[in-house]
Amino acid sequence: MEKMTYAQAAREAVRDAMNADKSVWCVGEDLGRGGVFGQYIGLQDEFGKERIVDTPISESAIMGGAFGAAMMGTRPIVEMRFSDFALCATDELVNQIAKARFMFGGQSRAPMVVRKPMGLWRSSAAQHSQSLESWYVHIPGLVVACPATPQDNYSMMKAAIECDDPVVYLEHKNIWLLEGDVDRDQGYEFGTAVRRCEGQDVTLVSWSDTANVCEKAAATLANQNISAEVIDLRSLWPWDKNAVLESVRKTGRLVVAHESVQVGGFGGEVVATVAEHAGNALRGPVRRVGAPRSLVAYAPNLEDQMRVTEAMIVAAAKETMGL
Fold this sequence. Notes:
Helix content is 36%, strand content 19%.
């Protein structure tokens, strides 16, 4: 086991993959200086400018060029800097990359990782703070990953690079410095959730940094004699329905929490799936916790109104138990 930050873990996964496979390379803005968040520090010195490629400021050109390279047999890692900026390349991703295998009858694929740092991060305001994971889950052909820990950011990045389908890889900007133990030999299979806490009274389902908040909420609930089980989905497509259904059948109660806007969020899909397949096991009302349908302000006091907090999750869990 090695102690790493969330950012270091992903960087080590990229380094290990590039050493193992000469077809892996990285492309995007500011990679030579280490990336906006330091997730590429040292890689250009180690692998050269032909494999750690700096580009002009044109997201659509970056995405389109990487797509062509992927179709020709390489495995590009595409750095979009912020998930918000990646919207400039949405047509390439949604109408070309996601549909390539289908439209070419399986003769060509797009094995590429599209890194889109997401989420609230210290007064980044409306154009740099969005969590848009549910958009990409809606698009057939895309794998959607939301790692929440250093271990997962290592294992899931390795799995994403090895995947033969395009992976939208959403790292949360607020946890780049989060530290944890990383086992380089620990693998990952997309569609596999992890049980972060074992519990009997209520199931808390989440992903990305909100899964970390749920774990804190479970500790607070434990001090109040409420046993909460925390399911971190890790990937949203494919997603681990069985892990959620198994947990809800045991606890009889469900809270789904995510930082993205609650309206139209992936939490609604989780709730609907539970209603369809385990509704008779529910012993209390289902609760969703998400951001209001509002723009993120620059001012910290207004930005805080968009945050999903430990207290909100604790309150929702108590509501499901009638407390």
